[in-house]
């Protein structure tokens, strides 16, 4: 059967109006665990254009979050470079907003105060802060929860607040580390749709880590399939389907089957490595 996967090279080029915004070149990352050296990333080369939605997909131990953290500036690579708009990244910066799976909200602040926090740190006027917070509360359907505290919210609502807080800073790049991984299926789909709607409206560049093959197909322009340790790029897949995407459509499921085969090959390597580690102990 002919493969339904299209690599980036197989598809029409992104218009010249969309320049490369994130560039990863020859990136390697190693960690020392006692006397052992763990190679988490190896020979990573990746270009992400302005306004693209790109998913990093693979099993545990493939380096997805490590690569995301390198782009964020939390963990600079051992070797190679990460640049954003031509500038080498060595530390976090306001041009890259991060959304974690853990909501990371201030429990003593209300929803509105959490969203406003970064704007206050930036020294914006009260009027500007109020206007932007109100806009975001409306966009993310949080207006009725503005005076609630995080403990009073569901997981899905907390993640909406976390996304609103990052969007408030108006960073051109959103880095998202499995932000919907802890949510139930229905809430997850609702927030996926919300994220796509906001992305289409505000034109951010998004780099999104996920274990979910279905989520990556539903969201992404491109899916970067990564190998189990050392993490390398196994395949750069262009998702050539119009939005909104139908998870029951034949082309969606053909792509899902092929991606599943690739990811399961790496999952088996992960499982075998775990068995060897237990046996060695």
Lay out the secondary structure.
Blueprint (H helix, E strand, L loop, with lengths): L5 E2 L12 E14 L2 E14 L3 E5 L6 H9 L6 E6 L2 E2 L7 E4 L11 H12 L3 H14 L15 H14 L4 E5 L7 H18 L2 E6 L2 H7 L2 E5 L6 E6 L11 H31 L1
Pfam families: ABC_tran (PF00005)
Family: Belongs to the ABC transporter superfamily.
GO molecular function, one term: ATP binding
Task: Describe what this molecule looks like in 3D.
With 281 residues, this protein is an alpha/beta fold. The chain contains 7 helices and 11 strands. The chain folds into 2 domains: 20-95 and 172-279, Rossmann fold (3-Layer(aba) Sandwich); 104-170, no CATH class. The protein has a 7-stranded mixed beta sheet, sandwiched between helices. Keywords: ATP-binding, Nucleotide-binding, Plasmid, Transport. It comes from Azospirillum oryzae. Belongs to the ABC transporter superfamily. It holds the Pfam family ABC_tran.
Keywords:
P-loop_NTPase, ABC_transporter-like_ATP-bd, ABC transporter ATP-binding protein, ATP-binding, 11 strands, disordered N terminus, seven-stranded mixed β-sheet, alpha/beta, transport, 281 residues, Rossmann fold
Task: Give the structure's gist in a few sentences.
The chain is α/β, with parallel strands linked by helices.
CATH homologous superfamily of the largest domain? P-loop containing nucleotide triphosphate hydrolases
Q: Given this structure, which CATH class of the largest domain is correct?
A: Alpha Beta
Terminus-to-terminus distance: 44 Å
The spatial strand order of the largest sheet comes to 1-11-10-4-9-8-7
What order do the SSEs take from the amino end to the carboxyl end, as H and E?
Answer: EEEEHEEEHHHEHEHEEH
Could you say what the CATH architecture of the largest domain is?
3-Layer(aba) Sandwich
Percentage of helical residues? Answer: 25-40%
How many H/I helices? 7
Q: Major β-sheet, in short?
A: 7 strands, mixed
Q: Total domains, how many?
A: 2
């Amino acid at each position: 059967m002919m493969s339904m996967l299209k690599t980036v090279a197989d598809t029409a080029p992104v218009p010249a109006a969309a320049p490369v915004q994130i560039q990863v070149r020859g990136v390697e990352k190693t960690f020392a665990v006692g006397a052992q050296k763990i190679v988490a990333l190896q020979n990573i080369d990746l270009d992400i254009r302005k306004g693209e939605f790109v998913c990093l997909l693979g099993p545990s131990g493939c380096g997805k979050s490590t690569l995301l953290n390198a782009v964020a500036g939390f963990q600079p690579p051992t070797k190679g470079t990460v640049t954003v708009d031509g500038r080498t990244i060595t530390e976090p910066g306001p041009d890259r907003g991060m959304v974690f799976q853990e909501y990371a909200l201030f429990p003593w602040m209300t929803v509105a105060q959490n969203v406003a926090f970064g704007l206050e740190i930036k020294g914006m006027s009260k009027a500007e802060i109020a206007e932007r917070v109100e806009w975001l509360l409306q966009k993310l359907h949080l207006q009725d929860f503005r005076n609630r505290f995080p403990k009073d919210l569901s997981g899905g609502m907390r993640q909406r607040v976390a996304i609103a807080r990052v969007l408030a800073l108006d960073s051109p790049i959103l880095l998202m580390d499995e932000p919907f991984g802890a949510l139930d299926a229905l809430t997850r789909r609702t927030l996926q749709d919300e994220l796509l709607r906001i992305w289409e409206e505000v034109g951010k560049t998004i780099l999104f880590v996920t274990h979910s093959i279905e989520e990556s197909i539903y969201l992404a322009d491109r899916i970067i399939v990564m190998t189990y340790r050392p993490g390398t790029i196994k395949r750069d897949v262009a998702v050539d389907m119009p939005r909104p995407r139908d998870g029951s459509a034949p082309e969606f499921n053909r792509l899902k089957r092929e991606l599943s085969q690739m990811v399961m090959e790496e999952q088996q390597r992960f499982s075998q490595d775990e068995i060897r580690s237990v046996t060695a102990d």
